[in-house]
Amino acid sequence: MKRVLAGMMLLAVAVPLSKAGIFITEWMYDGTGGEFVEFTNIGSTAVDMTGWSFDDDSRTPGSVNLTVFGLLAPGESAILTEANAAAFRTAWNLGAQIKIIGNLTHNLGRRDEINLYDSQGNLVDRLTYGDDTIGGPRTQNYSGNILAENLGRNLAAAAVRSAVGDSFGSYASSGGAVGNPGYYYAAIPEPATMGILGFGLAMIVGLRRRG
Ligand SMILES: [Ca+2]
Ligand SMILES: [Ca+2]
Ligand SMILES: [Ca+2]
């Protein structure tokens, strides 16, 4: 008798065990209220961003100083935007605790790049994007989110566009743009939990046997 196993699918639970520190987690290159980039500390220890910097596709460390972010706590996100910081905070209804650097003048374009450098000028993370060149969402008025398993991998094509009420916690700003700036959607696992998950937790779903 021939047996067929159908519908077998492995879902590896991607846990970035080897990753710690600060990553680009969300971006919107254009939108009502101003373009923005979100950086999040997904590690378990605070990171001092004194001397850190941002640049777009000109790839020049030191171009935009991020020192004002200071110490970024585990799980904390910070925002860099072309908008006035206070206006951005109001438009997205963000509390005073969310760190925002405003008045960015580099203008992220439809095809551009986000580069994050540490105080030594080393590249910490990079996101090269362009919906009409390499694919992925067009982040105009809707931000793009980097999935946990893709943090630090420069895979804009695999980013997910925000929609109101999605699993990233997205909502509409007062100007009608949709995103979730200031918070990274993925819960940061406790170190103990991460250890357990790190053994390669997997699920087998839909395993069926046909006679
Ligand atoms: Ca722009
Ligand atoms: Ca640019
Ligand atoms: Ca976010």
In short:
The protein is mainly beta and 211 residues long.
Question: What does this molecule look like?
Answer:
It is a single chain. The protein has 211 residues and is mainly beta. It has one domain (20-187): Immunoglobulin-like (Sandwich), CATH 2.60.40. Helices cover 7% and strands 32% of the residues. It is built from two helices and 18 strands. A six-stranded mixed β-sheet has the order 10-9-4-3-13-14, covered by helices on one side. Strands 7-6-11-12 form a four-stranded antiparallel β-sheet, with no helix packed on it. Strands 1-18 form a two-stranded antiparallel ribbon. β15 (171-172) and β16 (178-179) form a beta hairpin. Residues 1-17 and 187-211 have low confidence and may be disordered.
Give the distinct bound molecules: calcium ion
> What is the tally of beta strands?
18
The first-to-last residue Cα distance is 7 Å
Main sheet characteristics:
6 strands, mixed
Q: Please give the CATH architecture.
A: Sandwich
Overall morphology: globular
Q: What is the C-alpha radius of gyration, as a whole number of Å?
A: 19 Å
Contiguous uncertain segments of 5+ residues: 1-17, 187-211
SSE order: EEEEEEEEEHEEEEEEEHEE
Number of helices: 2
Oligomer: single chain
Q: Helix proportion of residues, in percent?
A: under 10%
Tell me the CATH topology.
Immunoglobulin-like
**How are the strands of the biggest sheet laid out side by side?**
10-9-4-3-13-14
Class by alpha and beta content: mainly beta
Query: What's the CATH class, please?
Result: Mainly Beta
- Which range does the strand content fall in? 25-35%
The total tally of domains equals 1
Please state the average pLDDT score. 85
